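Good day; I would like, with your permission, to put a structural problem before you. What I wish to show you is a protein chain and, alongside it, a tokenised description of its three-dimensional fold. Please examine both parts with care and let me know of anything in them that strikes you as inconsistent. Thank you for your consideration; the sequence and its tokens are set out here:

***
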Amino acid sequence: MLAKILWSCTFYGYTPQTTQETFEDRIKHKMHTCYGTMARKLEQKYYLNYLPGHKKREVLKTMRLASLNSIAMSMEDWNYCKKRIAKASNIRKKRDYRMQKRIDYLDYREKYEGLRDKFMGGKNITFHDMDFIYDGFSMLLTNMETHTYGESSRVDYLKKLIKYIEMDSDNEFLNPQKLVVLCKVSSLHPLSLKEEEKIKSEFQMLAGKGKLVFGTREVSSDVVDLHFTILIQKYEKRQPQTYSDGYRHLFS
């Protein structure tokens, strides 16, 4: 119980390994694929259609100066757009509906393609290994890090982490159908063959009867410790879904 409380209280983003990822992905909402970029441009068009010409130019100038992907307007402009949208003709409403469905689809593709790209480029992880993300299975994306501070080996620290996970009554890794693990390691401190085999063995025990896909990627860093990006595919199959709502529970 104590281990679970400590794990839950650990704030994601304080460690040197995750600071850059935290700022880029969580604050700037960085677009990972062309689908996300297209979705944001279409979203801009959706709202700019309801602004007068001089307001459009002001908004576009602000976005250009701030290098923003998403639409950025004052509260006054937002309220103006909402009033125009509420009073739109049936023809415009139909156009807006088609545009919103397109935005939903592009966001869906951004979620899944972005997820796949997190693992592509890792040694021994292929495009075929990631095909299952489109099948509507229940999935969970999580991260794991070693923090040895030179006092213990990376593998020993990982063993302790996995031991605490297995003790957890809400073990998210219980009975997975597939476990995809990408190990990011500093190019200055690469994994030895012995370390890699031990790490794979630990994750295979965690996967149980499920299939393990394990890959490594060397990154430019002087940090000795390891960072793991893990995708868990559960046994339970989701009900058939449409693209518009399928991506919403991707990380549930």
The two ends are 23 Å apart (CA to CA). Residues 34-117 form one domain. Strands lie at 137-145, 176-186, 211-219, 227-237. Residues 239-252 have pLDDT under 50 and may be disordered.
